[in-house]
Amino acid sequence: MFNATFCRPDLTTFLGLADLGLEAIGLRLEAGRAVIECVPISDD
């Protein structure tokens, strides 16, 4: 693999939230579900 790109693993990247204009800032794990807290990404 000649042009490999590595970045820090995080929920925003893993879940593709940046494409939706969101950034993950929190995670809560409960029995049977996970809740991801997100905030909008501002381009200001």
TrEMBL record:
<protein>
    <submittedName>
        <fullName>ISL3 family transposase</fullName>
    </submittedName>
</protein>
